[in-house]
Each structure stands twice: as structure tokens, then as C-alpha cells.
Amino acid sequence: MTPPALKSHTPQRVLITGVSNPLGAEVARRLATQVPTLFGCDVADPVSAVEAMDFVHADTRHAVIGKLVRQLHIDTVVHMAVKVDSHGDDRTAHETNVIGTMNVLTGCAGPSSPVRRLVVKSSQALYGASPAYASFVTEDAVGSDRLAYGLRRDLLEMEQLAQEFSLRTPGCRVCILRLGYRVSEGTTLGQYLSLPIVPTFAGFDPRLQLLHEDDAAEALVRSALQDHEGAFNVAGDGIVLLSQAIGIMGGKAAPVLPFYGRWIGRLALRVIGIDMPGHLTDVLTFGSVADSAKLARTFGWKPAYSTRAVMDSLARGKEAEVIESPSPPQEYELQVYLQRRRRRRLAVDGHRGTATLTLRQ
After folding, report:
1. How does pLDDT run across 317-328, given as a tens digit for each residue?
2. Longest dimension (CA), the chain
């Protein structure tokens, strides 16, 4: 028997996890103008002030996140507390991506849960990298045969949890976005490509596919506001070879890293200040290109920046126009003050619950 179709859902009360990083802050700024009530949570303060967002210090690795979802009567969760560009701390990445996601899903589950929409930020790193792969990796190219080539097992487990939740919870639409590799200033890949002399793996010139920060934020916002379900690759059109990317940045390639024993290459990069995650080492050897046709068909939208345009933007130093610099302490204090004023005003006007809620972990 085919289950009845879900009614269209218009977000009213949205929670963003992992809001303290630049991408999370950008998503919050955009959603703040499009939803009536917005909350953000993270273990650290947001990098910039968003007056219309109420911020709560909360760690998704703790069960309190479920209490937060229910007490705030959240109907839409944008789960961005996911580590991808981590540096060797596999335990922290697993706790954040797997245990944290389990706690979020627990808060979204059950007949009493108000959540009707869940967006999960994942990554193209889920696929790993291999010379045996097809030219374009599609969304269904995930399986145990990829474990030997840099597959992020924690991301795979995280997505499996989200997909199982979707099957068990027909009243909640789940959308998973596998974001492409980004090269903004704070990313490891961006730092690597910005070196004046770039060590590369001898004998390899891999294909790279990139995603602009602006397009990553737009994809997450559209997923929160629309009702599409399933997993989607999100990456810019076209590719650049690693040698071309280095040339665009004005650097010089130095093919000195050994292919066998790529961990040696990681140690060499660490000596010059680049702590390269293992999955990126495989990408810089074999390359990785994902097919985003499903995204374009379903959303009627695709990233505005091609891979080449992303590299040109990085070379011109334009990323700062998309992601603002962190707010000074005074600005963050101003944000807190304005939020308190707004909550008092709502309380006076007769609104209940969220304006005066104090969450104790």
C-alpha cells in the first residue's frame, strides 16, 4: 500500500545546529529573512551577529539537543554540526557526526515530535577517491567497495542513520546534501592551493570539482524552505586539473610527494603547516567529480559558480565578500543585548514559551 503524500510544509520555527562556523552563520543570515522564528545552537559563539536568531550554547554530542528541539517546538532542523575538514582526530569527528546526529534524530523522532523537515549537511568526501570510479559519481555510488579509498566511514554511518530515520518517520521529510569541496580561506584545500610552491604527488594531476561558499549556503537554505527528499550532490559545473588550479593561484607545482605510502606525503605537508585530512590526500591523488544532475532536475536550481569560477574567485580574494569576518566581542555582546530586548518585547505582547525559555544543560 502506498503511503499518503505528505502535505507541503512551510517552515515556521527553524533550528540550525553548527551555526558558529562561517557557513552556518551565512545560512542563518539568509534564513532569518525568510522564516518567522530562527534558533541556532553550537558549542562556540557564532562568528558574526544575527540579531533575528536566538542562540543557545548546546552540543549535539549530548542528549540535551533532543530536549532543545522539543521544548522550542522546532518544525524544521538544519543539521550542520558535521565535521568534514577534520585533522586526524577521528574520534572527535565520529562523536560529532555519528553520536551528534543520533541525538538530533532522537529529538526529531516520535509521534510527539513537531519536526516535519530535516536537512543534513554531508559531503562529497563520502565517496572517497579511486582511479576505478566513473567520470561522474552519482548519488547511488555508495557502498562497501569504496572503503579502501579514503571513504569517510563516519559520514557513511551518519547518512545511514538519517536514511533509516526517514523510513521510520514518514511524517518528516529528510534531505541530505553532499556538498562539494570548498576552497575558502579557512579550508585545508584552500590553504594548500594558496601555497607559493605546492607539493603534489608525483605522476598524478587529478581532476578537481569545487563548490563556492555562496552556493553551499544557497543549497542549504533552499533545502530548508522546500520539500525535496533524498540525497543530492551539490557541486559546481566543470572541473580543473590540480596543475591548472595551482597555476590560477600563481603558484608552482612541485611533484615531490610519493604515491605509495601517502601518509608520508601527509607528514611532509604537515611540516610546512598543512595538516591534510586523509580523504583529501586521496582526492589530490585520484581526483573526485560528482554528478549534480539530480539536484538541478529536482530543485530547478544549480550552483551559480562553476569550478573554474570558484578558483578565479579564490585567486582574486573575493571569498570575504560572501562570508563576513568574525564579529568583534562588542558586536556579539550587542547581538545578545538586542535578543534580550526582543524577547522582553515578545513576552509583553503575550507570546509564550520560547521568548523566556532558559535551557539548562
Report:
1. 844 444 444 444
2. 69
Q: Which three cell numbers stand for residue 22?
A: 562561517
Q: Tell me how far apart the alpha carbons of residues 241 and 248 are, in angstroms, rounded to a whole number.
A: 11
User: Tens digit of pLDDT for each residue in 166-213?
Assistant: 999 989 999 999 999 999 878 999 999 999 999 999 999 999 999 999
CATH class of 13-182+212-236+291-303+324-348: alpha beta
What count of Cα atoms within 13 Å lies in the side-chain half-sphere of residue 352? 2
Nearest to 9 by CA among 174, 231, 161, 215: 174
Classify residue 176 as exposed, middle or buried by CB count within 10 Å of its CB (0-12, 13-18, 19+): buried
pTM for this entry: 0.85
- In DSSP terms, 40 is beta-bridged to 16, 55
Give the separation between CA 321 and CA 304, rounded to whole angstroms. 15
Q: What are phi and psi of 2, to 5 degrees?
A: -80, 125
Extract the C-alpha cell encoding 147: 572503503
Nine-digit cell at 114? Answer: 513537531
